[in-house]
Amino acid sequence: MSADDDIEWRVTPGLTPYPEALAEMEERASAVRRGEARELVWLLEHPPLFTAGTSADPAELFNPLGFPVYEAGRGGRYTYHGPGQRVGYVVLDLDRRGRDVRCYVHSLEGWIIDTLGDLGVAAHRAPGRIGIWTDRNGTEAKVGAIGVRVRRWVTLHGFSVNLTPELSHFSGIVPCGIAEFPVTSLGEMGVSCRLERFDLALRQRLSRFLVSLEGGTEKG
Questions:
Q1: Catalytic residue among 176, 183, 193, 210
Q2: Region for 128 from its dihedrals, namely left if φ exceeds 0, alpha if ψ lies in -120 to 50, beta otherwise
Q3: Disulfide-capable partner of 15 in 47, 74, 102, 158 (CB 3.0 to 4.6 Å)?
Q4: What is the mean pLDDT of the chain?
Q5: How far is CA 181 from each of CA 64, 136, 143, 173, 211, rounded to the nearest angstrom?
Q6: Is the Cα torsion angle 29, 46, 125, 72 positive or negative in sign?
């Protein structure tokens, strides 16, 4: 049996309103905790908006275009979501996958880094800065964000990866509270990648990600 046989893989086309996604994710997490639903990896896009994590500083929100701002309940600060950005919500039961939140975040980063590598983008972790980073003309730039919450050992929220978003929209916040480094995208780097291609590459790395949660490596 594959490590991901019990997980629902869902891709929602179009733009999903954030309140609807948040409510459904919260409900799914509760159902997973009760043993009444399968774990979930949910891929989608949102219309332009900002989300505020539990450490969000109002001084880091400028929002000149008046995008909606939502309390997310996850860790971290302000994050932008919008068209051209792949958002992944990951609802997993860590009670049966290692019970290690640090390992989960590290493995989530590794999943995205490996996926981008398969697409020809060299990405990496940066000490002291959660997220996914790459080189842009000799300067580190952020290409993906990680923001999670764990409730009763069930994970909520997840990641976002910038494929072809409108990068000027990020100027409405200090992204994730880090002003020293720019935000980039695969499109800005000259890498052509449709959502479907990214999703396929991500799914091909799912089993390895799940095995890594328990400190293992997939054979073969």
A1: 176
A2: left
A3: 47
A4: 94
A5: 21, 10, 11, 13, 32
A6: negative
